[in-house]
TrEMBL record:
Matches recorded under Gene3D superfamilies: 1.10.8.480, Vaccinia Virus protein VP39
Residues engaged in binding S-adenosyl-L-methionine: H36, L38, G63, E85, D113, N128
Signal peptide (from-to): none
Listed GO MF terms: RNA binding; rRNA (adenine-N6,N6-)-dimethyltransferase activity
Residues in Ribosomal RNA adenine methylase transferase N-terminal domain copies: 43-213
Matching CDD domains: AdoMet_MTases (cd02440)
Keywords, comma-separated and alphabetical: Methyltransferase, RNA-binding, rRNA processing, S-adenosyl-L-methionine, Transferase
Full protein name: rRNA adenine N(6)-methyltransferase
GO cellular component, one term: mitochondrion
């Protein structure tokens, strides 16, 4: 720990590595994938302090970039840091930087899309996230399967306000409503756009997400909370994905693709095996693992299941509604339709 801290101090004393690295990797006018690197040392240190990392913690960082935050996480009492980065150039940069500091043994870099990669088990998530995936990433943390103590995230300020909004606030919205079910969300500090290289067009804020220890068992009569959270997570993940004509997805288009049908068929079969056959329309699959299971669905089974999905979407008349305009109550109604037809999300 002492060795790590002194390595970091001497590294800081050298020329500003964040700016140099950013200039080497990013070309103006607009960096790809929201690559605005946090370059204010005071803010970076504040983030790690707020994160309250404990000895032995496993930390996940999304989007390490050139490693400005990562090196501080590595120098903290954390036992391990797993950094998920989509850009291989950045992965190489952060790997080299941690090696130069003698901290590579604590770091695992996973090169991939944070929305597709399965996170390893973690206690704390600390990140200056790519703002383009704010909603689905926060949904993945809040409503996904991960059990963690805290998440400390730099996000766009407007998003932070919406996420932390309370009932009665002007910004109160579906994301905040669902977040409050499962976590306490707190706005910790504003972060100026001037603290980034290159300077983005928006301001930022630091937020803290602390999952609640006890979740309600049902969000509404007949709707188990875990089922609801998995359903909401899937909807939020699709919310930012636009179709080819740059239109926001409708409920109908979200559940239409064959890969989505197969994914739900897989989950539903698993749920049916778990709960015991309830006479629904779901087929029983005898596979040892998920890949094996999904490869065993016949074309007829997939087509029949697709019909169940289409029927569920059409019966509450939501097929043409855009995801952003659907209320929580409408989504609840839709989820009940799905469950009645044996379409499960957990
Ligand atoms: C805002 S920068 C933050 C960089 C660094 N944490 C810092 O503060 O200096 C976001 C980083 O996320 C990466 N990124 C963008 N989209 C991503 C995704 N879907 N999954 C993982 N990383 C992503 C970018 O390549 C970039 O390095």
């Amino acid at each position: 720990m002492k060795r790590a801290a002194s390595a970091l101090r001497s590294h800081r004393a050298a020329s500003n590595p964040s700016v140099a690295a950013a200039e080497a990797l990013l070309r103006p006018p607009r960096p790809p994938r929201g690559q605005h690197l946090l370059a204010n040392v005071r803010v970076l240190d504040d983030i790690v302090r707020h994160a309250g990392i404990r000895p032995g913690d496993a930390v996940v960082e999304v989007g390490p970039g050139t490693g400005n935050l990562t090196v501080r996480l590595l120098a903290s009492p954390a036992a391990t840091v797993a950094a998920v980065e989509i850009d291989p150039r950045m992965s190489r940069a952060v790997t080299a930087r941690s090696a130069a500091l003698g901290l590579a043994h604590k770091l695992t870099v996973i090169t991939g899309d944070a929305m597709r990669v399965e996170f390893p088990k973690f206690d704390a998530c600390v990140a200056n996230i790519p703002y383009g995936i704010s909603s689905p990433l926060v949904a993945k943390l809040l409503f996904g399967p991960h059990q963690f103590r805290t998440a400390t995230l730099v996000v766009q300020r407007e998003f932070a306000r919406r996420l932390a909004a309370a009932p009665g606030d002007r910004e109160f919205n579906r994301l905040a409503e669902n977040a409050r079910l499962v976590a306490d969300v707190r706005l910790l500090a504003d972060v100026s756009r001037e603290d980034f290289v290159p300077v983005p067009g928006v301001d930022s804020a630091l937020v803290e997400i602390v999952p609640k220890e006890v979740r309600p068992s049902e969000v509404a009569p007949g709707v188990p909370t875990d089922e609801w959270l998995a359903f909401v997570c899937l909807c939020f993940q699709q919310h930012n994905r636009r179709d080819k004509r740059k239109q926001e997805k409708t409920i109908g288009t979200v559940f239409k693709p064959d890969e989505m049908v197969v994914e739900l068929l897989r989950r539903s079969s698993r749920a049916e095996q778990r709960d015991g056959n309830n006479g629904g329309s779901v087929v029983t699959v005898h596979g040892d693992n998920d890949d094996e299971a999904s490869s065993r669905f016949s074309k007829e089974e997939v087509v029949a299941f697709k019909e169940s999905i289409v029927g569920a979407v059409q019966s509450p008349g939501l097929a043409h509604k855009r995801l952003s305009t659907v209320s929580n109550n409408e989504l609840l109604r839709l989820l009940r339709m799905f469950i009645e037809r044996g379409v499960r999300f957990q």
